[in-house]
Amino acid sequence: MEYAQFKIGESFKTATGTWRCTDIGTRTIAAIHIAHEDDMPVYEDPSWFNGPPYAVAEEVFDAYDFGGCYTMDDPEPF
Description:
This protein is mainly beta. Helices cover 5% and strands 32% of the residues. The chain has one helix at residues 63-66; strands at 11-14, 17-24, 29-36, 59-61, 70-71. Strands 4-3-2-1-5 form a 5-stranded antiparallel β-sheet.
């Protein structure tokens, strides 16, 4: 994905599963991990994904990570 494709509140995929963008910085994005690669939720209680603040840790993705991110409508890249 390109930096401009990330939108707060929208999901994207990586090799580790599905993530939801929670913040966009100048050169980074923050996201929470919402589902594993097999589509099993990371946490069973969906209220943990309500925020901010979130009950789960936000991870930071930078320009080096964007190449491993895919939009939800991309064909399965893995």
